[in-house]
Amino acid sequence: MFKWGIIGCGRISHRFMQGFAAVDGVELVASYSRRPETVDAFVAQYGGIACRSIDELLASDIDAIYIATLPDSHAAYSIAALKAGKHVLCEKPVTVNLAELDELLAVAKQTGLLFMEGMKPPFYPLYGKLKEYIANDPIGPVGYVRAGSAVADCPPGHPNYNLELVGGSLMGIAIYEAFLALDWLGPMQDIQTMGKFGETGIDMFAIFQTLHQNGYAQLYCGFDMHGKGDALIVGTLGHITIHKNWWNPAKATISYLDGRTVELNEPFIAGGLNYEIIHFCELIKQRKTESPILPHELSRQMIAMIDQARAQIGLKYPVEK
């Protein structure tokens, strides 16, 4: 039985617990939020102890911690948890920038504990099934990826609109697109970014083109338009469409140059976060310090891409020195 603690008891943590309930061999022992009323309501619903301080949580009898706060505090909480001897699963984006992540990973290496970014798409059954199918029936070398997400339904006052809390579409959404491009095309070599700012100073919409080791990507993200939410992966012998919402993948179509079409359907359950929890627990059992599916270097490349995109449109957060 793996004993878990949670830091941050907002919307994401409720989605996490939906998946958590579908995983065998795990128990929620303790939770912490800066708002006592929030953590009290959370444990009333899911069980465990409501901690009144981060130190109380870290002193609890737990094996692993899920960090689901806003990005401005991810690095500090992750480092504190690792130093307290806990394995850490931290929600994306894992830190504000690459410098923070490198500091965090140095601590993870020193402790010898497991650290993983909570980037859900690669752990969904459909994504794994797609990779396996393509390995056996390739579409040829992949040279182009097109993906994006734009949602226009965030209510006023949402943290996504708050510059102080590291809001904006690049940090909130485009980290998914960064993952997809890097996963299929390899390390990024160049980037061109355009963006539009909102009244609060965050990027409301951004589009970026990237050059990679193996090809090109065209990516977008936004909070003021409603996008299609699919993804296109193009090779020399065919192309793949991951249907909306591609970051919660359940259906893909593979179209081959020879005229064949293959449909892959793999519905997910419990909201989808259960798959990364299962993977994380398996890594603990195997005494691994990082995931082979989402290694530390890939997390570095993802946040580095967002760093460069932000720099090109002039977006810097108050928390950055």
From TrEMBL:
Record has Oxidoreductase as a keyword: yes
Matches recorded under Gene3D superfamilies: Dihydrodipicolinate Reductase, domain 2, NAD(P)-binding Rossmann-like Domain
Record keyword Transferase present: no
Domain of life: Bacteria
Pfam families, A to Z: GFO_IDH_MocA (PF01408)
Listed InterPro entries: Gfo/Idh/MocA-like_OxRdtase_N, Gfo/Idh/MocA_domain, NAD(P)-bd_dom_sf
Domain Gfo/Idh/MocA-like oxidoreductase N-terminal per the UniProt entry, residue ranges: 2-118
Keywords for the protein's UniProt record, in alphabetical order: Oxidoreductase
GO MF annotations, alphabetized: nucleotide binding; oxidoreductase activity
Family as reported in the entry's similarity comment: Belongs to the Gfo/Idh/MocA family.
Protein name, per record: Predicted dehydrogenase
UniProt source species: Mucilaginibacter gossypii
Lineage: Bacteria, Pseudomonadati, Bacteroidota, Sphingobacteriia, Sphingobacteriales
